[in-house]
Model the fold of this input.
Amino acid sequence: MYQTDRGTYQKKETASQAFTHSCLGKLIILAAIAAVLLLIAHLTVPDEQAMRKEMDDNIRQCIEANDSIQGDWLDDAINNVGYIFTTADGTIDQELMDNFKKYNRLEYYKHTFHSSMRIYNNFRTEGERVGIGIFGIVIPTVNFNDFLLRVGPMHKDYGERIIKNIYYEDSYLGDNPMLKPYHYKGNPED
Done:
């Protein structure tokens, strides 16, 4: 039992196999996949009505979730991922939502492969992105600190300073029998 082509164990590749194994073939396949994904993204960009509906829901959830404990960016990111899959319940404080609509403005921007929502108010005059729409999904990037929910005067009179330095005339702070001058340099009982 002898082999007829001793020393060469290469099998004959077809033209399609040679194309898919070459570097140029892999690049062309990758470009075709990217083109299909971009086409799908372009066709499934959420329109303004869908973005506004989802962003209203996400903003309601953000206002409901806010409490006295302010988290960091990771907490906001986890909350925003959760907002994609959940909806706000109907027990939101209507006064807060009325104030939100009064002092904040949402604007819709349509791009080639995605859309975005920006919030504008007196605090964020340049605008802050609060949502991205791609592949038919609205991904919120809301943060409670971006909202303006109350408006009040910073100071009452024209010349009044916002930060007031308070000076006390009385320098008496109480007695401490163990406290002596320079007690930190040695034993305070000396």
Notes: Helices lie at 15-21, 23-43, 48-65, 73-85, 94-103. The beta strands are 105-110, 115-120, 128-134, 137-140. The two ends are 106 Å apart (CA to CA).
